[in-house]
Amino acid sequence: MCRLAAWLLDTGPVLVLALIAGAGSFTHIRDTATEHGQHGWMAWAVAVCIDLTCLMAARERQRDKKTGRIRRGPISWPVLVLAGGVVLSLAANLQQADPTVWGWITAATPAAAFLVAVSILERRAAASRLEPSPDVSQTSPSWTAASPPVPERPQAVPYERAVR
């Protein structure tokens, strides 16, 4: 029960942020699609496609990091897909905004919050792959994924005992 409570306290706010951001983004995309000729279920489908594409791209980035399939350079297919989805979401958010600076800022908030939630979840996924080394006598933690294991030094034998 303690682990569940700790997990909820740690991950709950990030998940709630992602859900709220997704709902705001979904609504803006659906409304924009409706205003531009996609009515009924099709407007919902457009919104689902964009939001789920963002989620799939974010998960694929995590999977690439986990499996070591990280491409050299900043641009990979999942990064490109995620950026495209966020740009479409942001465009729909801004389309629905009042044409004022504060209207644009508040309308852009769901897309920005989604990116924050994704980046936090990615950082946590990367950190969970690092396991602390079993040597607890060290004052600072040693992470096995970051540094190779250090062999123990043999204890020095006093000269008098070694001669006898």
Automatic annotation (TrEMBL):
Keywords: Membrane, Transmembrane, Transmembrane helix. It comes from the Bacteria. Residues 129-164 are annotated as: Disordered. InterPro entries: DUF2637. The chain crosses the membrane at residues 7-29, 41-58, 79-95, 101-121. Pfam families: DUF2637. Residues 135-145 have a biased composition (Polar residues). This is DUF2637 domain-containing protein. It comes from Nonomuraea harbinensis.
